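JOB MANIFEST
job_type = single_chain_structure
chain_count = 1
residues = 311
[input]
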Amino acid sequence: MAAVFELSDGQTVSIFFHNPDVTPGKIAPTDEMISWKWLLNKKDLTILVAPENGMDLNIKEVATRVMKLAATNSAAFGRANTKRAENLAAIEALKAEIPVLEKELKRAQNELEVAKVEEEQRAQRREAMENIPDIANPAKRYVAVKNELIRLGWAVAHDGMTLIDRSGAVAVKQELVGSNHYANIARDWAVYQKSGATWKKVDQIADGSAKTLKPASEVAKLIDVAASKISPQIKVVKPKRQDPIKTAFIAELEALKSETDIWAFDRRLDEIVGRIEQAGLMAALDPELNATADVLTRLLAAAEKGKAYGQ
C-alpha cells in the first residue's frame, strides 16, 4: 500500500509500505508496516532515506532530506501549479458554457427543421401552381372571362381589374375563395351596383372549382344577365359584329396584362403597337393601348419601390 502527501506547491511525496510477516497479502490492525520505497513527484528517492551503516535514519532526518529536495523544486512547481490552476479554471468555464451551447444548438436545430418544413411546403405550392392548367390559373382565367365580357360590351375600369357594364351602373370583379392562390380554389365574380358615389355588392356569380370550371363565355353571359336584372334598361343582345383584326389585337393586349416580366412586357407591347400602326387602328384602339400602358407603368413603379426598399 502507499501513502501520498501533496505539498502546498503541488509536489507529491509517495511512500510505499509492505507487511513483512507470513501473510504479506493480508494486513491486520496490529501488523507492523515498513516503508520500502520513497518517491518525490514520481521520482525514486529511496536511496536518499535508506538505512546507513545498518541503522535506520531518524524520522526527522528523513523528513529533512525529503523536504530539502522538495524545496529545490518549489519555484518551478509553483509556476506550474499556477498554470494548472488557470487551466482548471478554464476547464470549469468551458463546462459551464456547455449547457448554454447545447441550448443554442437545440434551438438552431429546431429552426432548421421549421425552415425545412416551410421549404417543403413552398415546393409543394410551387408544384401545385405549375400543375394547374391554364384555364384554372387565376390570372389567365380572369383575362379569359374579361375578354368575353368585353365582347359583350363591357369596359375595363381605371384600376385595370374591375369591369363596368354598358350602363356604367354595374361592375364586376374576380374574387378568390381560399387561403392561397396555389391550391385548386374556387373563384367567384362579385357583382356591384352603383349607388350614388359608392358601390354596393349585390350578387356573386360562381365560377366553380379548378376541377369544374365553367367555360369563360358561359360565366360572362351569367354576369351579363345578372347585370341586366339590376339595370333593367340594359337589354341582353348579341354584340355587334366587330372587326376580327381589331378584336384579335384587343385579345392580345388583354393577355399581355397578365405578364409580370417588365422587359418581356415592354418588348411585346412595342411589337403589338407596331402591328396596330401598320393596320391603321391606332385611333380605334387608343383606349386599350392606354390601359395596357398603365399596367406597364404600375409594374415599373412597383419595381422602383422594391429597389428603394432594398437599398
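[summary]
The helical segments are 46-49, 59-131, 138-151, 216-230, 244-256, 262-278, 286-310.
Residues 203 and 211 are 23 Å apart (CA to CA).
exit_status = 0
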